[in-house]
Automatic annotation (TrEMBL):
Residues 1-135 are annotated as: Disordered. Coiled coil: none annotated. It comes from the Bacteria. Residues 86-131 form the DUF5709 domain. This is DUF5709 domain-containing protein. It comes from Marinactinospora thermotolerans DSM 45154. InterPro entries: DUF5709 (IPR043763).
Amino acid sequence: MTEKQPDQRTEPINNTAADWENDALPAQEDSTEDLILPNERPQAMDEFGTTGTEKEAGEPLDVALSREEPDFGETRPDPEGDIDADPAAERLVAEDEGVREDDEDELVAGDAGFDRGAYSAEEQAVREREDPDLP
């Protein structure tokens, strides 16, 4: 007669992978592939606020601002600015300016001079510009 040994357990936690499949449970995989790995160097060891005294005192604003980095997205902006940009935005204004009823079938507007801002969406749509990406 064989007796059960106390070190042999029948719990599903200690069973082999074949036993998991027989019990209709999904196979257990190594889940470390999806984990974020730590950096090669320690982070924030030298930073302000690692001690309780610093946390209570609060971080000076100039120190906090010096650590910030701007979000540029995929490309960084050109430090020289947009060289090809139109230097001034001018206004397109209809001759009647909405004062009286328009008798013309076509839209007609003239350049009214400089404006304090950029082109409106409508004005950008009617202006010609060279696109370097187009053939």
